[in-house]
Design brief:
The chain has 6 helices and 2 strands; from the N terminus they run ααββαααα. It has helices at 15-20, 28-44, 65-70, 72-80, 82-89, 92-97, and strands spanning 50-54, 59-62. Strands 1-2 form a two-stranded antiparallel ribbon. The longest helix has 17 residues, at 28-44. The protein is globular, with a radius of gyration of 14 Å.
């Protein structure tokens, strides 16, 4: 299956997220900008992420139950971060930096 951005339905993605995928690569700057938009979207809906940590490669964070139950987390993630996050998590750069499992 070809998961290139041109083959995905990005109709629910923000224009910023779609633009980040135009070249079929996600840079660290694009990844961080997409995460910031996701975080700001949640904040605008009245929800804050908890325990946000960036380890130089990826973000880890906690989403409140209220954000999930209200649908805000799904909407903000899908609109601002999901495709960029998917590309970043599967990028060669990130995979090369990950410890291998014996």
């Amino acid at each position: 299956m070809d998961d290139s951005p041109t083959d995905m339905d990005l109709s629910e993605a923000s224009s910023e997220q779609a633009a980040a995928l135009d070249d079929r690569e996600v840079t660290l700057d694009e990844y961080q900008a997409a995460f910031t938009r996701y975080q700001e979207c949640l904040s605008g809906a009245g929800h804050e992420l908890g325990s946000v940590i960036f380890d130089g490669q990826e973000y880890s964070y906690v989403v409140s139950t209220d954000a999930v139950e209200s649908g805000a987390d799904d909407e903000c993630y899908r609109t601002e971060f999901s495709y960029v996050d998917m590309y970043w998590q599967t990028s060669d750069r990130l995979q090369d930096a990950s410890p291998t499992t014996p």
